[in-house]
Automatic annotation (TrEMBL):
InterPro entries found in the cross-reference section: Kazal_dom, Kazal_dom_sf, Spink4-like
Family matches, as Gene3D superfamilies: 3.30.60.30
Location, primary (coarse class): secreted
Pfam families assigned: Kazal_1
SMART domains, A to Z: KAZAL (SM00280)
Domain Kazal-like positions: 88-141
Annotated signal peptide: 1-18
Protein name per Swiss-Prot or TrEMBL: Protease inhibitor 1
Lineage: Eukaryota, Metazoa, Ecdysozoa, Arthropoda, Hexapoda
UniProt GO molecular function: serine-type endopeptidase inhibitor activity
Subcellular location: Secreted
Length: 148
């Protein structure tokens, strides 16, 4: 019986000491409040890095002077038999200056253009192009009819 009591006493003391060491290792102080360590109690949000830069290009003078605003246009046009339509340089510049993520999740627009992600398509809509998502895959490419 004495051995069992000593074993339980040893287990309890070890657990208490190890938890104390673990808590000290994971935080700089003896406070066990996770909210404070992870910043969940922050009441104010830090200001934007580039204030005054809205979603729509041309809203403020000097657009394109901040890093990341000059993203290249990454849409590809699938061949079609309806004739060719090109975007004006102003619309191309508008699409290039939209802040979007670099993810590759291609969507096919109703204008038969493959956009690299839904954010690019939304950007095209914001720039005045009348387009919506046709399907969540790249646009199909036209195949040549076999010659006999």
């Amino acid at each position: 019986m004495d051995k069992l009591v000593v074993f339980f006493l040893f287990a309890i003391i070890t657990n208490v000491l190890c938890m104390s060491v673990r808590n000290k290792r994971q935080s700089n102080d003896d406070d066990d409040v996770l909210d404070d360590r992870y910043g969940w109690e922050l009441t104010t949000r830090p200001p934007r890095q580039f204030p005054g830069q809205g979603f729509f290009p041309g809203l403020f003078p000097g657009q394109g002077q901040f890093p990341g605003q000059q993203q290249r246009l990454t849409t590809t046009r699938a061949p079609n038999n309806l004739g060719t339509t090109t975007m004006s340089p102003a619309i191309q510049q508008c699409i290039r200056s939209c802040p979007v993520t670099a993810e590759y999740n291609p969507v096919c627009g109703t204008d038969n253009i493959t956009y690299n992600n839904p954010g690019r398509l939304t950007c095209a809509q914001a720039c005045g192009i009348n387009v919506s998502v046709l399907r969540s895959l790249p646009c199909p490419t036209a195949t040549q009819a076999p010659t006999s």
